[in-house]
């Protein structure tokens, strides 16, 4: 059971959401809004459905993941109404709903039907959710301007949301420690995954995303998706990118560990962590997130030079020649909330020098971002560079030695405060 302080914060959160949503509805000319939680689609040619975690706006209000065919109705000046789908069914169990104070703010009704409820006097009604489930539902489905306005309500987190994110970080860190210990014991990627799940008490399917667990050269694939079931002959490195959901909110943490005898790789891990901590310290109101991304390239250029991976070039030349983009090909991070890559991050397209950046905004208090620089040895990116005109400046012998370690990523979750930032991951 969550503590009373968190439950009290949730009531404040709901009051704030009511105000934000009422304002958005009025601006867009709607009297009420019906939100569908969604439902898992069935796999093609099969009678099994994909795993389900819920539609973002529904989770923003309720935090109830895994609840299919539920509906939330919002009206200005009225108590929100939530219909929970609770069919009489001997095939499946209905998940019990714990009694909590938020149920005094939202009226909860039980429904055996998966269909949208019949609404009394909805006025001008908007309905949002998976379009496949909105056929024959009265109201305007997924109005584009309203959806954009509702996305904006999720950009600045309430104190309740921040504490949920902090708790999700604390739970995930227990898993990361267990994963590191399993790696030290010589476990396989599959064994490391089991250790992480055991420590977090969370099924892989319920995690906010599929955990990335790469041992040795697998760490060089950014979203490595397979788990070897057999331990490697020699454990050189571990990269684990894994989080936890808590009351709908996600953590997203990455750590890299060097194996025994990997002194060069361990030095790179240490060096990148120093860069990462300086980038976290940059998070503050008024800072352009793109500037943090560009500062990451400066730090990586300095690290490449200091460790002898690149020689004969000034740091700015390492960046200008595109070398840092080969070692660090992704963006520095993204918004975080009820979705891992939370919404409304790119009101403007990313710049040409950062095409994969998921966040292009100036930072404001209440925003929660990830800071995740990386340094990888990716053959498909490195080999053309080594064969090109700048190849003479790369230490090919050292690079070849480190290829088997795959790569490094270090990721924290950071809140923008009124005066600076709070690192939820390091606090945990």
UniProtKB/TrEMBL annotation:
One of its GO terms (molecular function) is metalloexopeptidase activity. Residues 12-150 form the Xaa-Pro dipeptidase N-terminal domain. It catalyses: Xaa-L-Pro dipeptide + H2O = an L-alpha-amino acid + L-proline. InterPro entries: Creatin/AminoP/Spt16_N (IPR029149), Creatinase/aminopeptidase-like (IPR036005), PepQ_N (IPR048819), Pept_M24 (IPR000994), Peptidase_M24B_aminopep-P_CS (IPR001131), X-Pro_dipept-like (IPR052433), X_Pro_dipept (IPR022846). Keywords: Dipeptidase, Hydrolase, Manganese, Metal-binding, Metalloprotease, Protease. Its EC number is 3.4.13.9. Belongs to the peptidase M24B family. Bacterial-type prolidase subfamily. PANTHER family: XAA-PRO AMINOPEPTIDASE 3, XAA-PRO DIPEPTIDASE. Splits dipeptides with a prolyl residue in the C-terminal position. This is Xaa-Pro dipeptidase. It comes from Marinobacter pelagius. The gene is pepQ.
């Amino acid at each position: 059971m969550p503590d009373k302080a968190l439950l009290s914060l949730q009531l404040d959160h709901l009051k704030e959401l009511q105000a934000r949503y009422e304002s958005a509805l009025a601006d867009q000319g709607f009297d009420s809004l019906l939100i569908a939680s969604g439902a898992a689609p069935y796999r093609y040619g099969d009678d099994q459905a994909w795993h389900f975690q819920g539609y973002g706006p529904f989770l923003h209000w309720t935090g109830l993941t895994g609840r299919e065919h539920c509906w939330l109705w919002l009206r200005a000046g009225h108590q929100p109404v939530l219909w929970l789908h609770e069919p009489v069914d001997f095939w499946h169990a209905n998940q019990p709903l714990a009694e909590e104070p938020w149920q005094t703010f939202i009226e909860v009704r039980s429904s055996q039907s998966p269909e949208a409820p019949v609404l009394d006097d909805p006025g001008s009604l908007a309905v949002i959710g998976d379009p496949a489930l909105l056929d024959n539902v009265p109201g305007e489905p997924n109005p584009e301007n309203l959806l954009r306005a509702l996305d904006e309500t999720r950009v600045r987190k309430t104190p309740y949301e921040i504490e949920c994110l902090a708790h999700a970080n604390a739970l995930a860190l227990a898993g990361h420690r267990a994963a590191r210990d399993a790696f030290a014991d010589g476990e396989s990627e599959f064994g490391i995954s089991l250790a992480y799940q055991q420590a977090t008490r969370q099924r892989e399917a319920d995690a906010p995303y599929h955990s990335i667990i790469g041992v040795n050269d697998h760490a060089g694939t950014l979203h490595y998706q397979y788990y070897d079931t057999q331990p490697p002959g020699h454990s050189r490195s571990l990269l684990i990118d894994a989080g936890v959901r808590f009351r709908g909110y996600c953590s997203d943490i990455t750590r890299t560990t060097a194996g025994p005898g990997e002194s060069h790789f361990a030095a790179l891990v240490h060096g990148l962590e120093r860069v990462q901590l300086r980038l976290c310290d940059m998070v503050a109101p008024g800072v352009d997130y793109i500037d943090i991304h560009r500062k990451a390239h400066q730090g990586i250029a300095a690290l490449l030079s200091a460790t002898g991976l690149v020689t004969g070039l000034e740091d700015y030349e390492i960046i200008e020649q595109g070398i840092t983009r080969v070692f660090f090909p992704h963006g520095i991070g993204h918004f975080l909330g009820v979705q891992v890559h939370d919404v409304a991050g790119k009101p403007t397209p990313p710049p040409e020098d950062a095409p994969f950046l998921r966040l292009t905004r100036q930072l404001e208090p209440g925003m929660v971002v990830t800071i995740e620089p990386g340094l990888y040895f990716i053959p498909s990116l490195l080999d053309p560079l080594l064969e090109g005109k700048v190849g003479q400046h790369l230490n090919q012998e050292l690079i070849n030695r480190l290829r088997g370690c795959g790569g490094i990523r270090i990721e924290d979750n950071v809140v923008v405060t009124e005066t600076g930032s709070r690192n939820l991951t390091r606090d945990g």
